[in-house]
């Protein structure tokens, strides 16, 4: 199938799908950190191509619930509405794509748009960290099946000592220029689960044939 991963500079999800044999393009206003098929520019330049699959990682800076204390100021200067509007614009413009997902942290989109279909944690897929990630799906994509049902299962599989708690990566990172990038890069094992569980979807394969 042919797919686009929008708002992705890291190439993580793009490369996981390429590994599964798909034709993929990542797209971001920034150039890609990992050489591969990438459009540096606005997602709306390439969104109307007849894609079979789409993954969308729109920015969350102005709508994430972790920044709720700034909502009043962001409503005053419009950033709150602009951020939700960009997301909604992406949702509307991607309705021709057969199947896909929108990803966001716990954010205002759960009330402005609708509740997510699934909320993931990185420990479910083998990264012993916490970072709630919401997914809104379409095109009959199944909910992802986690590798681990509890943090404890993940901890044991990784051989970490009992009592070790999964932590939010952001709390362990020292301040740096690219801290935001490291923080927002998709976890590779989560990307692999997307590609393995959705990239092999018989429905998509049939439609793409
Ligand atoms: C939260 S980050 C997502 C990063 C992604 N998870 C990754 O692993 O690369 C959001 C990205 O959206 C990009 N972005 C924002 N508006 C965009 C637009 N209109 N077209 C393309 N990319 C856009 C930003 O440059 C930023 O890199």
- In helices, the fraction of residues equals 25-40%
Secondary structure: number of strands: 7
Low-confidence stretches: none
Mean of pLDDT: 92
| Relevant CATH superfamily | Vaccinia Virus protein VP39
N-to-C order of helices and strands:
EHEEEHHEHEEHHHHH
How many discrete structural domains? 1
Radius of gyration from the CA trace?
17 Å
Number of helices: 9
In the CATH hierarchy, what is the class? Answer: Alpha Beta
Task: Give a nutshell description of this structure.
The protein has one domain: Vaccinia Virus protein VP39 (Rossmann fold, 3-Layer(aba) Sandwich), CATH 3.40.50.150.
Describe this structure as you would to a colleague:
The chain is α/β, with parallel strands linked by helices. The protein has one domain: Rossmann fold (3-Layer(aba) Sandwich), CATH 3.40.50.150. The chain is built from 9 helices and 7 strands; from the N terminus they run βαβββααβαββααααα. A 7-stranded mixed β-sheet has the order 3-2-1-4-5-7-6, covered by helices on one side. α1 links the parallel β1 and β2. The mean pLDDT is 92. The protein binds S-adenosylmethionine. S-adenosylmethionine binds next to β2.
């Amino acid at each position: 199938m042919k797919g686009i991963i929008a708002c992705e500079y890291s190439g993580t999800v793009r490369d996981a799908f390429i590994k599964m044999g798909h034709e993929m393009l990542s797209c971001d206003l920034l150039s890609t950190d990992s050489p591969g098929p990438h459009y540096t520019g606005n997602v709306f330049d390439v969104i109307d191509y007849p894609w079979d699959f789409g993954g969308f990682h729109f920015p969350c800076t102005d709508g994430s619930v972790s920044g709720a204390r700034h909502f009043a100021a962001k409503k005053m200067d419009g950033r709150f509405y602009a951020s939700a509007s960009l997301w909604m614009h992406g949702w509307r413009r991607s309705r021709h794509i057969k199947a896909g997902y929108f990803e966001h942290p716990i954010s205002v989109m759960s009330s402005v748009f609708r509740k997510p279909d699934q909320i993931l944690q990185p420990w479910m897929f083998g990264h012993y960290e916490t970072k709630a990630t919401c997914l809104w799906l379409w095109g009959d994509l199944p909910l992802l099946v986690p590798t681990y049902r509890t943090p404890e299962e993940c901890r044991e599989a990784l051989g970490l000592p009992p009592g070790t708690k999964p932590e939010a990566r952001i709390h362990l990172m020292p301040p740096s220029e690219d801290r935001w990038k490291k923080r927002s890069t998709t976890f590779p094992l989560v990307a692999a689960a997307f590609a393995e569980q959705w990239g092999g979807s018989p429905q998509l394969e049939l439609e793409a044939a």
